[in-house]
Predict the structure.
Amino acid sequence: MPERLVVIGGDAAGMSAATNARRQLGPDRLEILAFERGNFTSYSACGIPYFVGDVIGDDVDRLIARTPEEFQDRSDIEVRIGHEVTEIDLEGRTVRVRNLATGAETREAFDQLILATGAVPKRPQLPGSDAHGIYGIQVLDDGIAVRDVLAKEEPQHAVIVGGGYIGLEMAEAFKLRGLQVSLVDMHEEPMATLDADMGELITDGLRDLGIDVYLNEAVTSFDTDRGKVSEVVTEHRSLRADIVVLGLGTQPNRELADMAGIPVGPSGGVMVDRRMRTKIEGVWAAGDCTEKYHRVSRRAVAFALGTHANKEGRIAGINIGGGYATFPGVVGTAATKVCGVEVARTGLKESEATEAGFEHLSVIVESTTRAGYYPGASPIKIKLVVEKRSGKLLGAQIVGREEAAKRIDALATALWNEMTVDEMLNLDLSYAPPYSPVWDPILIAARKAWSRVQETLSEC
Amino acid sequence: MPERLVVIGGDAAGMSAATNARRQLGPDRLEILAFERGNFTSYSACGIPYFVGDVIGDDVDRLIARTPEEFQDRSDIEVRIGHEVTEIDLEGRTVRVRNLATGAETREAFDQLILATGAVPKRPQLPGSDAHGIYGIQVLDDGIAVRDVLAKEEPQHAVIVGGGYIGLEMAEAFKLRGLQVSLVDMHEEPMATLDADMGELITDGLRDLGIDVYLNEAVTSFDTDRGKVSEVVTEHRSLRADIVVLGLGTQPNRELADMAGIPVGPSGGVMVDRRMRTKIEGVWAAGDCTEKYHRVSRRAVAFALGTHANKEGRIAGINIGGGYATFPGVVGTAATKVCGVEVARTGLKESEATEAGFEHLSVIVESTTRAGYYPGASPIKIKLVVEKRSGKLLGAQIVGREEAAKRIDALATALWNEMTVDEMLNLDLSYAPPYSPVWDPILIAARKAWSRVQETLSEC
């Protein structure tokens, strides 16, 4: 009789794990059963703002990499959508599952279990924060719900609370759909994963598009009208709100793990080792619900990002299937494009570097994405955070208009390899007038940082 | 009395050396005198095709970073343009200099000397190859000459001999100026710095633009009419030619070094150590005239590229000025954009890997530059060349349409750090729908290469 793998969560991490396990073991050796409480499998959550904003049209199927039927047909994986796992019984090696349509509950046995429950949007504990019309954007069903509201209720005024990635992307999406949009953020600049001195250009981009941006301002409550949100109240004003989106970031969805006693780390994510094993024999976890090893801070962190979910799912699946693969951790790379501004970061920003115990310095350079004389040369601003004395790169941030953000990958690769800015300033990066000045902006930044490191050393 | 530094060659390498030496030592300690046989200093040779093609307008000054007057005023560096150094007397520590306008010759003493004589286009030894109307494109004066010919002689038919970077860029430039353009290349595909299986898309791009491309075809002679080229004769045909550009690559300009007995390596470039010292005390060299250490093949190579020239010039200048800096070598990164096709490479192509003694395998993947559903997703093709058994990256090539080429920098950085494809496949590269699919094309390529490495190992 084959072993049975039960998968909790049918998006990137869970289904990557399932297909990779299947690739290792045929149906006679492994039965795979996946439960997804939503209505879709293997979709791009990152694509939701573009679906809401009509950037990619109204066909939600474009965001779906593989349907339950395709998993069945191609990989012999049974997926039950609309089924929520409500309890894990580690002793009895079963899960309790509720069919959300009928309410019927069953128990399903497992030999191997993988938790891929994802993340949930952070929700402020404020008066009215549970009102109708306040959306977190995490699963595809959220995107469909918001799109339905736009079509049916024709809201005029949208308020975004929190300028994280999803908040900014949804602000733009609503603007593209013709709404009057306000963004409230308690930080000095939106996108608090960057240092404030890099966030300014983002604020400019938002305002250029006609979005009202209120910074250094905390939301205090949500007014409601017959159970539905009507106003977002801040320290300084009250903003009319027919619809509200939370952009305060996410936290790992740990509920099932907590109930079952599967250990969760201080980051809030399920603790896993490099093979994606939890502390419980035969129980694995991958994706947004887990904590990740940050290679620069050497700490466990919780990041919700599809690229990690896919990698971790793959690794879990290979190991579940009897192979060997390990996840080497992350360096905190992320990117977005919002209101025509490209934004990317990797490693630690200044406050994170301080918190991790690094003595550091930082430099900012402004250059162009092409040779100055070449048509379409566009400004790019690069910040490096560097350890004093050693000159080791600790983090980098990029803000630009075009062909800017993806350059973070060279910096992420340098960071991964623990390069110093002295080593980096001679890196053999590509040069041709359509792609960079003869001194690539990254090299200019490294050169400037190395000068600063030397100055600092000579002051000691 | 200050020491005197004489600089031979007033472009990137020579003038970077001069300004960096000046930054270390004030005028009371160092006198700097530079000779440039052309009419310009510190210009972008890589920008010449865009100047000829009118992509950047007709103002040649846009290609010039700094004029002789600016060097004098800002850095106290005397530059004599139109002055050619014709001999180096190492014994007497002088150079002989000819004023090209007057023919007058002088001798100038030096304490330190830097050779920055650049490269010269390779010219085939064929009947007629010295005829008028056949241009190599290396210095800004070449670009001005060709632009003048276009304006005054109104040539109709241009033939490009050799599909190297400059050949392809000039083919496009002539086409943009309305000429009928033919390209003859003896290789299977143009751009022989790529493997042939990556060059196809370039040929398509050239043909889409209406350029006639003749491949696997050698030029045998040049017919002339009253001393001026009239036809390019190949193995299979004769092509009418009012103007011919050579795109056969370049070789280090070693003439002065040879005459003076300054050692030149097997690559044809002046031998330098990591501080840019030649074998002769007090004589330095930098830029296209020198050989460079290739970090992957571990051999000396001659590459003519502005980015190396600037870096080497900087390092030479710091050392000349009494500081300490070293050049760590190159990994062979290069990029261009031609006829709407973006091309980039780093490391070794297959034949180079074989030649360097590596047992290797290669993979090619096709993906997109953005998430498939995101507007503007454009095809990108990535090839990786990988050492068998170790899985170490040896080289990478990228061909695409938009936002493709600059991604080579992450691969160049991985190569620089001697990463294996197994390590690379979990690299924390940026992901967001406007920038890549959730599995970045580089990661897909690394994953595929790692599978191939594992298969190969299991066959052993």
About this structure: Chain A has twelve helices and 25 strands. The two ends of chain A are 69 Å apart (CA to CA). Chain A touches chain B through 63 residues (CB under 8 Å).
